[in-house]
Amino acid sequence: MSRAPFATPPPHQPLNMLLRKAQLNFLAILALIALRVVVGWHFFMEGTDKVQKGGFSSTGFLSGAKGPLAKTFQAMVPDFDGSVRLDDEKMKQAYEAFASEAGALFQFTEGQTAETKTIVSATRKQLGAVYKEWKPQIDEYKNGIPRVSKLENDPMRSNVSSMRKQRDEIETKWKALIKPALYDIDKINDEFETAINALATEVQIDKGKLAANFKLPGSPPIDVKLIDKVIPIFDMCVGILLILGLLTPLAALAAGIFLASVVLTQFPGSYGSQPTYYQAIEMVSCFFLAFSDAGRYAGLDFIPWSFWNRNSQSIVQPRI
C-alpha cells in the first residue's frame, strides 16, 4: 500500500505566517503613534526654542568633538586653531576683501566705499587692542604649537591609554589659552560684518540680494554658520512632518542620520567624550519610525499608502 505524499506547503506560506505574526495589535499601534508624535514634538520644540532665543551656535559642540572623526567635525569650524584670527596681516586682508565684496554686491558709491575703509581701520584698531590685552596668552599658545604637533604625531601618545589621556589634557589646557581672545575677535568680526552691511541703502538692497557674509580665509563650503542657520529649520520641519505623519519615512530617516552625526561627534569610548545616551536612544527611535510605516497610523501617510496599495492590487490580478 503506497503512502500518501506529504503535503507541500505553498511557496509563500512561511513568509505569510511571519507577516501575520508581525501584525500590530491595537495597543502596539497606539504606542507607535505616541512615539511618532512625542519624537516629532521634541524636534519641533527644539527648533522653535533655537529660533526664539536666537544666537544658536554649534561651534562649541563641533570644536569639542572627540574620537577618530574629531578632525572631520572640527574642520567645519572656520579657523579652528585660530591661526588666521591671531594673524594681524591675514585679518587685514580678510577685512579689505569683505569690504570690496560688499561694495561689488551693493554697488557702493564713492562715499560708501570711503566709509568701508573707515570701518576697516576702526575694526583693525579694535583687533589690535585685543592682541595687546591677551598678548601673554597668545604668545604662549603660539610657542606651544610645535610641542602639541609633536604629541599628536607620537604613536605612543595615541595608542597607550594613560599617555593619550595626558596628551589630551595638555591640548585642552593649551587651547584654553586663546579662547577669551578668540571670543573677543569673533564679536569684533560680527560687528564689522553688521556695520558694512548697514551701509547699503534700501534701494541697493533689492529682493535678489542677501546680506554680504564675512568669511575667514580657508573657511570650508559647509561651515558652522550655515549649519547654525539650517538646524533650527530642519528641527521644526522634521517635527511638523512627524506629528502630522506626513512623509514619515523620509523625515524620520533624516532625523536619525542627523542624530547619528551628533553621537559620532562624541565617539563612544573616546577619552573625554560626553555621554550621548539620549541622542542615541532617539536616533534608534527615528530609524524605527522610518521603517515601520508609522505615518499611516493616524497620520497623513495613510493617504498615499492607501492609494499605492489600491493600485498594486489592481495591477496584480489573482489567477483563476
Q: Can you tell me about this structure?
A:
This protein has a domain at 25-78 and 221-320. Helices cover 67% and strands 0% of the residues. It has 15 helices and no strands. Helix 2 crosses helix 14 (277-290). The protein is flat, with a radius of gyration of 28 Å. Mean pLDDT is 85; it is low at 1-7.
What percent of the residues sit in helical stretches (DSSP H or I)?
A: 55-70%
Structural class: mainly alpha
Number of strands: 0
Shape annotation? flat
The total count of helices amounts to 15
**Low-pLDDT residue intervals, each spanning 5 or more residues:** 1-7
Strand content: under 5%
Mean pLDDT: 85
SSE pattern: HHHHHHHHHHHHHHH
Distance between the termini: 35 Å
From the alpha-carbon coordinates, what is the Rg to the nearest angstrom? 28 Å
Let me know the largest β-sheet.
none
Task: Give the gist of this structure.
The protein has 15 helices and no strands. The protein is mostly helical and about 325 residues long.
List keywords for this structure.
320 residues, mainly alpha, disordered N terminus
